[in-house]
Structure formats: C-alpha cells, structure tokens
C-alpha cells in the first residue's frame, strides 16, 4: 500500500492557540489509571501512552457493558497503533455508507451520471404524440420539481402540444421493492426511510428523495384552521386538515401523519396564534407516481395536453427521444450523500451498482456487488453482513478491522481524494463541509482535521475516518460502539479522535485533552439517530 498525504498537519501556531484558548489537562489526570490496552505486545513510550489513554476512554461509564470495535493504524508505516474487539461483527449504523460509497466509485466511477429521458413512440413532427409519452428514469436522486418544469418546457419547446395516449412513468431500471426488507416499518413515514425508485423527486437542495415538505401556518385567530401545504404537490397527494389554531401562549402540538399505503396526509394538533409555522418532511407512497403527476402538471402548465391517464408502465423497445436530463456526476453527489448521511442516496446507489454490474437493479444484486467491489480493493469480507446500503437496518454487521482495511486500501485508489473529502470534516459549520460533524470537536486539534463518517442507531454508534497527528503522521481509525446503556457515546468517540490528533512520537511531549464530560456538554444533539435524520444538525 502506497501511503499518500491526507491533509496538512496542524501548524505550531494552531496547536498553541488550542493550548491557550481551551481549558485542558492531561488525559491521565482526568480518566484515572490506564486500563490494559487490547493491542498486541506492550510498547514503551508515546504509543504505550496512546493505547492506555484510548483503553481508559473505552472504560468510560457511557460504555459500561458495551462492545467497542476500535482500530487505529498509521498510514505512513502500516503500524497498528491500537486494536480492541476489532474482529467482532457489529452493527455499523451509517458507517455502512463507507462500503457503499467506495463500491459505487469502484463500479460506477466518479464521472457516473444518471439519465432521465422523455420519449415518444415516434417523431411527433406535427406536434402530436400519437400514443404514449414516456418519462423514463435511471435512479437520479437529484431530480427536483424545477428539473421537471425544465423537462416540460423542453417538450413544449420541441413543438409538442398533444399526447393522444397516456403519460407513462417508466421506473423499470430498478425493481419495485420500495423498502428495505429489514427496516422497521414504524420508520416508513420519516424521510430517512423513504421508498426507493428509479424515478423519484428530491424535495429540497439536500436532494432528499421520495419525500415532500409538509408545512402549516397558524390561522389569524384562535379556533381557526391552520393553513397546511405539501411541496412539491401533485394530484396524487391529499391533505386531511384537522389541525386548529390555539391561543397565543399555547404549546404547539401539530403533527403530520401519512396513512400506510396511501398518500393521504393528516394534519392534527394545533399551532399558537401568532406563532411560528410548522415544517417537516414526510415520505410519499409510490415515488414514481409522484414524479409522474408532477411532470404531468408541468406539461399542462406548458400547454401540453395529455389525453389519456398518468400511470406507471414500460417503454416500448423502440422510442424517439424528445429530451434528456443528466445529473451531476457521482463525485459531486457524494458530498450531500456522505456529509448529510442521506439514506435514499445509499440505496439508489446500491441498486444502480446492481444494474451496472449484473443488469439487475435490486438490493440483492447490488449488495452482492458491493461486497465484490470491496474484495477487489483488497479487503477481506469475512463475517460481513449487508442487508442495505445506508446502515438503517440493525441486521447489518461489519467488523472494525474491515473498516480499517477499507480506509487503508482506499488510499491507493485514483478516486481516494474524492472519497475522503466527501466525509464530514470536524467542526466546520458549513453543512456541506462539516456535515454531521459540524458541531463536534470544535476548538480542538481535531477541528478541520478529522474527516470521518458518523453513524447512529438505537444501541449502535460509530465514527471512522482519517486524522493527521501533531507530527504530521496520517492515521486511519474506526470506532464502532454497540450495546451501550444510554445516549450514543459521541463524547468518547470525539475524545479518542482528539487524542489521535494530538498524538506525537516525541516522548518529551505529553498531549493535552479534555474530559468526555466536557465534550458531552458541547454536543448539540444526543438522540439515537443521525442528527441530519432528525433535523438536529
């Protein structure tokens, strides 16, 4: 493996500012006697100190009774600096996206784009499509209502004014299994568990697919109905408004629920008069239908009449292409996907991988090829269990040492810099830079240094990525915690990452760090799920 630079080392001035601006004490003084590290032979000096400190952090109360797979490796020398339960298969949560994204770059390539076309059975030279108009997708997760408006304008611009048949939505690039087999059915209304289709709509600039923005504003006076709205709305969606406006000082209780198997959205509860509007994301049922109805409305607005119905269907073998839309390349899509931990993107990529490699846009084909791709990178996949690409399922199982191997072997790939910079960067406020680490490790040696993928589910939390030490040494690390008793141990994960950022092989220098309690007090979010999934970051 050829080590290559990952990031510039922290400057002496930066380390000095950290030492002066943050109240710090030695790790040993904060966490007591060092526990015996799980790494191999005892090593004297700075590495032994590092191992003792990490072991002591893993002995924190937050991890009482938990299993923690942890590895730390030098990318410069290949040396394993620390290992604990690294060969134990654990639930990775969104660390599964490390495998999905790497496989996508390997199979599809950084320049891969998704094509969406509008086709007709024959050239409508006279402005009339004799038969059906076909909207055909290949999984583009960046199709917004604005894109559908532009496609409709192009169709009208080509001279088409009438379609004598139906508007067909062709999503057969993927299969019709919409939800992961092992996903919790109670998650289905929430945007992090949206239905997967080869033809779907992104509701916002984060490219959250298969969802709508559900909003409501209070009425002018108490007792009046609220003003609900779904955006982007199509004729396939229905609102049932049972919510009211409460007294000005009342508590907001408004909620939105979609009845399973339908696109009926019920607004219940109340909003205080004069108070703030309500906004959330909710999934749609059958995202292909939603895309088709949005496109039909856009065509109507452009003066194109559809004489028949709006429905799903397959394109005939021979068609005349009217217009085409091409997505951003995969290397750009990785940014919202990885920074914001977008589950829909992960599952779309799995099915796209399956279609590219095996001609089958299914979870089964895609996940098999993800494993094959990881093997091709030189990573042994013994004990690997993948049931989705996002990590939403609790039946995924990944070893920390497999993640370590992937992080290491990826450095030799031509797409490595694209992949690494798609990871959240600690302490960076910009959501498309810091992502799920935007609020973490600020004011430490890890800020603007640690590139790492987060992961959080009930009982499972992870942080894996890259860090540059105080000496400029490049490290890869993986921390996967399962079965902890309380809130996700992000404070412990951050403390380990900061300790790695401070690590030096100069045995005359003792790194500085803060206690896990101080880190925990800085966390703006302590729930079970990824902070982007709950709108908390």
UniProtKB/TrEMBL annotation:
One Pfam family in the UniProt entry: Peptidase_S13
InterPro entries assigned: Beta-lactam/transpept-like (IPR012338), Peptidase_S13 (IPR000667), TAT_signal (IPR006311)
An MF annotation (GO) of this entry: serine-type carboxypeptidase activity
Xref: PROSITE patterns: TAT
Keywords: Carboxypeptidase, Hydrolase, Protease, Signal
UniProt keyword annotation of Hydrolase present: yes
SUPFAM superfamilies in alphabetical order: beta-lactamase/transpeptidase-like (SSF56601)
Signal peptide annotation: 1-40
Biological processes, Gene Ontology terms: peptidoglycan metabolic process; proteolysis
Membership in a protein family: Belongs to the peptidase S13 family.
Record's protein name: D-alanyl-D-alanine carboxypeptidase DacC
Species, as recorded: Nocardiopsis ansamitocini
Gene field: dacC
């Amino acid at each position: 493996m050829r080590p290559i630079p990952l990031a510039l080392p922290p400057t002496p001035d930066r380390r000095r500012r950290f030492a002066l601006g943050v109240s710090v004490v030695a790790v040993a003084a904060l966490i007591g006697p060092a526990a015996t590290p799980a790494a191999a032979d005892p090593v004297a000096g700075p590495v032994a100190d590092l191992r003792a400190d990490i072991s002591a952090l893993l002995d924190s109360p937050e991890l009482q009774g938990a299993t923690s797979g942890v590895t730390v490796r030098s990318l410069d020398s290949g040396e394993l600096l620390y290992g604990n339960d690294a060969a134990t298969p654990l639930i990775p949560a969104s660390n599964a996206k490390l495998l999905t994204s790497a496989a996508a770059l390997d199979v599809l390539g950084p320049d891969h784009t998704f094509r969406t076309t509008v086709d007709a059975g024959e050239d409508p030279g006279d402005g009339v499509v004799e038969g059906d108009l076909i909207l055909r997708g290949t999984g583009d997760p960046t199709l917004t209502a604005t894109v559908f408006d532009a496609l409709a304008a192009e169709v009208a611009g080509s001279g088409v004014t009438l379609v004598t048949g139906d508007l067909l939505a062709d999503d057969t690039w993927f299969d019709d299994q919409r939800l992961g087999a092992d996903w919790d059915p109670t998650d289905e209304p929430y945007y992090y568990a949206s239905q997967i289709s080869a033809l779907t709509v992104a509701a916002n600039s984060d490219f959250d697919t298969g969802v709508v923005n559900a909003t409501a504003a209070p009425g002018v006076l108490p007792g009046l109905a609220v003003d609900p709205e779904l955006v982007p709305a199509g004729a396939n969606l229905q609102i049932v408004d049972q919510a009211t406006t409460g007294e000005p000082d009342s508590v907001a209780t408004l909620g939105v629920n979609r009845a399973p198997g339908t696109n009926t959205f019920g607004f219940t509860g109340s909003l205080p008069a004069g108070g703030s509007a309500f906004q959330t994301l909710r999934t749609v049922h059958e995202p292909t239908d939603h895309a088709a109805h949005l496109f039909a409305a856009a065509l109507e607005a452009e003066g194109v009449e559809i004489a028949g119905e709006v429905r799903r269907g397959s394109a005939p073998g021979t068609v005349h292409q009217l217009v085409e839309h091409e997505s951003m390349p995969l290397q750009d899509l990785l940014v919202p996907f990885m920074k914001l931990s977008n589950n829909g993107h992960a599952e779309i990529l799995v099915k796209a991988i399956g279609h590219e490699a095996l001609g089958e846009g299914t979870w089964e084909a895609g996940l098999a090829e993800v494993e094959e791709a990881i093997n091709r990178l030189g990573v042994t996949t013994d004990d690997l269990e993948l049931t989705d690409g996002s990590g939403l399922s609790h039946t995924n199982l990944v070893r920390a040492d497999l993640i370590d191997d992937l992080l290491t072997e990826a450095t030799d790939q031509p797409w490595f810099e694209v992949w690494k910079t798609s990871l959240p960067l600690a302490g960076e406020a910009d959501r498309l830079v810091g992502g799920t680490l935007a609020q973490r490790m600020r004011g430490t040696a890890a800020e603007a240094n640690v590139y790492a993928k987060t992961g959080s589910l009930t009982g499972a939390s992870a942080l894996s990525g890259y860090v540059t030490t105080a000496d400029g040494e490049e490290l890869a690390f993986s921390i996967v915690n399962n079965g902890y008793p309380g809130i996700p141990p992000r404070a412990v994960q951050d403390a380990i990452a900061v300790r790695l950022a401070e690590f030096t092989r100069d045995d005359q220098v003792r790194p500085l760090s803060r206690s896990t309690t101080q880190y925990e007090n800085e966390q703006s979010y302590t729930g079970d799920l990824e902070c982007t999934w709950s709108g908390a970051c």
